[in-house]
Amino acid sequence: AGNVVILSAEDSPGDTIKPRLVAAGANLEHIHFVDDMLLPGNHEKAPDIPTDLDLIEKYLEEVDARFWIIDPIMAYLVGIDANKDQASRQVLRKISKIAEKRNCAVVCMRHLNKGGNSKALYRGNSSIAFFGHARMGLLVAEDPESPHYRVLACIKSNLGPKPQALRFALGPQVLNLDGQEHSVCRIGWLGACDYRPDDLLQPADN
Asked: For the packed helices 85-102 and 53-63, what is the interaxial angle rounded to 10 degrees?
Protein backbone atom coordinates (compact mmCIF):
# COMPACT_ATOMS: atom_id res chain seq x y z
CA ALA A 1 0.00 0.00 0.00
CA GLY A 2 3.02 2.31 0.38
CA ASN A 3 6.79 2.56 0.22
CA VAL A 4 9.02 1.25 2.99
CA VAL A 5 12.42 2.57 4.14
CA ILE A 6 14.64 0.17 6.07
CA LEU A 7 17.70 1.03 8.14
CA SER A 8 19.30 -2.27 9.09
CA ALA A 9 22.66 -2.41 10.83
CA GLU A 10 22.79 -6.18 11.32
CA ASP A 11 21.48 -7.99 8.22
CA SER A 12 22.58 -7.67 4.61
CA PRO A 13 19.80 -6.50 2.26
CA GLY A 14 21.00 -8.72 -0.60
CA ASP A 15 21.79 -11.92 1.30
CA THR A 16 19.16 -11.84 4.03
CA ILE A 17 16.48 -9.15 4.03
CA LYS A 18 15.41 -9.19 0.37
CA PRO A 19 15.10 -13.01 0.23
CA ARG A 20 12.98 -12.93 3.40
CA LEU A 21 10.78 -10.24 1.89
CA VAL A 22 10.32 -12.23 -1.30
CA ALA A 23 9.40 -15.32 0.75
CA ALA A 24 6.79 -13.22 2.53
CA GLY A 25 5.30 -12.04 -0.77
CA ALA A 26 6.61 -8.46 -0.67
CA ASN A 27 6.84 -6.22 -3.73
CA LEU A 28 10.51 -5.19 -3.73
CA GLU A 29 9.71 -2.13 -5.84
CA HIS A 30 8.27 -0.59 -2.67
CA ILE A 31 11.30 -1.41 -0.48
CA HIS A 32 14.14 1.10 -0.05
CA PHE A 33 17.30 0.49 1.98
CA VAL A 34 19.48 3.14 3.61
CA ASP A 35 22.97 1.68 3.92
CA ASP A 36 25.16 4.74 3.43
CA MET A 37 24.19 8.36 2.87
CA LEU A 38 26.03 11.00 0.88
CA LEU A 39 27.03 13.67 3.36
CA PRO A 40 28.49 17.15 2.90
CA GLY A 41 31.99 16.76 1.48
CA ASN A 42 30.86 13.92 -0.84
CA HIS A 43 31.68 11.10 1.54
CA GLU A 44 29.40 8.23 2.47
CA LYS A 45 28.73 6.71 5.86
CA ALA A 46 25.93 5.04 7.76
CA PRO A 47 23.46 7.64 9.06
CA ASP A 48 23.67 8.74 12.68
CA ILE A 49 20.62 9.54 14.77
CA PRO A 50 19.89 12.32 15.64
CA THR A 51 22.69 14.02 13.63
CA ASP A 52 21.48 12.89 10.20
CA LEU A 53 17.72 12.98 10.78
CA ASP A 54 17.35 15.85 8.30
CA LEU A 55 18.94 13.71 5.58
CA ILE A 56 16.81 10.71 6.52
CA GLU A 57 13.66 12.85 6.43
CA LYS A 58 14.63 14.12 2.98
CA TYR A 59 14.97 10.53 1.79
CA LEU A 60 11.61 9.58 3.29
CA GLU A 61 10.09 12.46 1.35
CA GLU A 62 11.84 11.50 -1.91
CA VAL A 63 10.46 7.95 -1.88
CA ASP A 64 7.12 8.96 -0.30
CA ALA A 65 7.63 6.45 2.52
CA ARG A 66 4.69 5.26 4.60
CA PHE A 67 6.65 2.86 6.80
CA TRP A 68 10.10 3.37 8.35
CA ILE A 69 12.00 0.56 10.09
CA ILE A 70 15.09 1.19 12.28
CA ASP A 71 16.75 -2.13 13.14
CA PRO A 72 18.08 -1.91 15.78
CA ILE A 73 17.75 1.69 16.87
CA MET A 74 20.73 1.39 19.25
CA ALA A 75 23.07 0.86 16.29
CA TYR A 76 22.21 4.31 14.92
CA LEU A 77 22.11 6.40 18.08
CA VAL A 78 25.24 8.55 18.35
CA GLY A 79 26.10 11.22 20.92
CA ILE A 80 23.35 10.45 23.45
CA ASP A 81 23.12 8.23 26.50
CA ALA A 82 20.35 5.80 25.58
CA ASN A 83 20.12 4.69 29.21
CA LYS A 84 18.90 8.11 30.29
CA ASP A 85 15.20 8.87 30.04
CA GLN A 86 15.40 12.55 29.10
CA ALA A 87 18.09 12.13 26.43
CA SER A 88 16.23 9.22 24.84
CA ARG A 89 12.89 11.03 24.77
CA GLN A 90 14.43 14.06 23.06
CA VAL A 91 15.60 11.91 20.15
CA LEU A 92 12.39 9.88 20.01
CA ARG A 93 10.36 13.08 19.87
CA LYS A 94 12.34 14.21 16.82
CA ILE A 95 11.65 10.87 15.12
CA SER A 96 7.95 11.17 15.95
CA LYS A 97 7.78 14.69 14.53
CA ILE A 98 9.25 13.45 11.24
CA ALA A 99 6.80 10.54 11.18
CA GLU A 100 3.86 12.87 11.80
CA LYS A 101 5.00 15.33 9.14
CA ARG A 102 5.56 12.62 6.53
CA ASN A 103 2.47 10.55 7.50
CA CYS A 104 4.78 7.61 8.08
CA ALA A 105 4.59 4.82 10.67
CA VAL A 106 7.85 3.94 12.47
CA VAL A 107 9.04 0.69 14.03
CA CYS A 108 12.16 0.81 16.21
CA MET A 109 13.63 -2.60 16.96
CA ARG A 110 15.47 -3.33 20.22
CA HIS A 111 17.11 -6.39 21.73
CA LEU A 112 16.29 -7.74 25.16
CA ASN A 113 18.72 -6.94 27.94
CA LYS A 114 20.51 -9.65 29.91
CA GLY A 115 18.73 -8.90 33.16
CA GLY A 116 16.66 -11.47 34.97
CA ASN A 117 13.56 -9.30 35.32
CA SER A 118 10.52 -11.25 34.16
CA LYS A 119 8.52 -8.06 33.57
CA ALA A 120 8.48 -7.53 29.82
CA LEU A 121 8.18 -3.75 30.24
CA TYR A 122 11.68 -3.62 31.75
CA ARG A 123 13.46 -6.14 29.53
CA GLY A 124 14.12 -3.91 26.54
CA ASN A 125 17.71 -2.81 26.09
CA SER A 126 18.38 0.81 27.24
CA SER A 127 16.00 3.29 28.89
CA ILE A 128 12.36 2.49 29.53
CA ALA A 129 11.69 5.76 27.69
CA PHE A 130 11.60 3.78 24.44
CA PHE A 131 8.50 1.96 25.65
CA GLY A 132 7.14 5.07 27.34
CA HIS A 133 7.31 7.13 24.17
CA ALA A 134 6.05 4.43 21.80
CA ARG A 135 2.32 4.12 21.27
CA MET A 136 2.60 0.35 20.99
CA GLY A 137 5.21 -2.09 22.32
CA LEU A 138 5.53 -5.65 21.01
CA LEU A 139 7.59 -8.62 22.15
CA VAL A 140 8.78 -11.59 20.10
CA ALA A 141 9.87 -14.57 22.16
CA GLU A 142 10.16 -18.34 22.05
CA ASP A 143 7.02 -20.30 22.88
CA PRO A 144 7.63 -21.65 26.43
CA GLU A 145 5.91 -24.91 25.48
CA SER A 146 7.75 -25.55 22.23
CA PRO A 147 11.12 -24.31 20.91
CA HIS A 148 9.75 -24.78 17.38
CA TYR A 149 7.29 -21.90 17.76
CA ARG A 150 7.50 -18.17 18.48
CA VAL A 151 4.97 -15.78 20.00
CA LEU A 152 4.22 -12.16 19.18
CA ALA A 153 2.71 -10.45 22.23
CA CYS A 154 1.60 -6.88 22.93
CA ILE A 155 3.26 -5.32 25.98
CA LYS A 156 1.62 -1.93 25.66
CA SER A 157 -1.01 -0.25 23.52
CA ASN A 158 -2.09 3.37 23.69
CA LEU A 159 -4.05 2.94 20.46
CA GLY A 160 -6.76 0.67 21.80
CA PRO A 161 -7.28 -2.60 23.70
CA LYS A 162 -4.31 -4.95 23.72
CA PRO A 163 -4.73 -7.65 21.06
CA GLN A 164 -4.35 -11.31 21.90
CA ALA A 165 -0.90 -12.84 21.42
CA LEU A 166 -0.19 -14.70 18.15
CA ARG A 167 1.78 -17.91 17.75
CA PHE A 168 3.86 -18.49 14.61
CA ALA A 169 6.34 -20.95 13.13
CA LEU A 170 9.40 -20.37 10.96
CA GLY A 171 9.26 -22.58 7.89
CA PRO A 172 12.49 -23.07 5.90
CA GLN A 173 12.33 -22.17 2.23
CA VAL A 174 14.88 -22.10 -0.60
CA LEU A 175 14.59 -19.28 -3.13
CA ASN A 176 16.44 -18.63 -6.37
CA LEU A 177 17.03 -14.90 -6.78
CA ASP A 178 19.18 -13.51 -9.57
CA GLY A 179 20.69 -16.92 -10.16
CA GLN A 180 21.64 -17.51 -6.52
CA GLU A 181 20.01 -19.80 -4.01
CA HIS A 182 19.02 -18.37 -0.63
CA SER A 183 17.87 -20.40 2.37
CA VAL A 184 15.36 -18.34 4.34
CA CYS A 185 12.52 -18.78 6.80
CA ARG A 186 8.96 -17.75 6.14
CA ILE A 187 6.55 -16.95 8.94
CA GLY A 188 3.52 -19.20 9.21
CA TRP A 189 0.86 -17.75 11.50
CA LEU A 190 -0.82 -20.33 13.76
CA GLY A 191 -3.51 -18.21 15.36
CA ALA A 192 -4.12 -16.59 18.71
CA CYS A 193 -2.83 -17.94 22.03
CA ASP A 194 -3.29 -17.00 25.67
CA TYR A 195 0.28 -16.00 26.56
CA ARG A 196 0.89 -12.68 28.24
CA PRO A 197 4.21 -10.91 27.60
CA ASP A 198 5.47 -11.62 31.11
CA ASP A 199 4.73 -15.33 30.64
CA LEU A 200 7.23 -15.45 27.79
CA LEU A 201 10.11 -14.17 29.93
CA GLN A 202 9.79 -16.47 32.91
CA PRO A 203 13.00 -18.39 33.68
CA ALA A 204 12.99 -21.97 32.47
CA ASP A 205 12.36 -24.65 35.09
CA ASN A 206 15.48 -26.53 36.15
From this structure: 20
3-state DSSP assignment of residue 1:
coil
Is residue 85 a contact partner of residue 78, using CB atoms and an 8 Å limit?
no
* 122-137 tens-digit pLDDT: 888 899 999 999 999 9
All residues at 6 or more sequence positions from 111 whose CB lies less than 8 Å from its CB, including other chains: 72, 74, 124, 125
> Which letter does DSSP use for residue 77 in this model?
B
pLDDT of residue 35: 79
Are the C-beta atoms of 32 and 3 separated by less than 8 Å? yes
Phi, psi of 133 (to 5 degrees): -80, -35
Kindly report, residue by residue over 151-188, the tens digit of the pLDDT: 999 999 998 999 999 999 999 999 888 888 889 999 99
Reduced to 3 states (helix: H, G, I; strand: E, B; else coil), residue 158 is coil
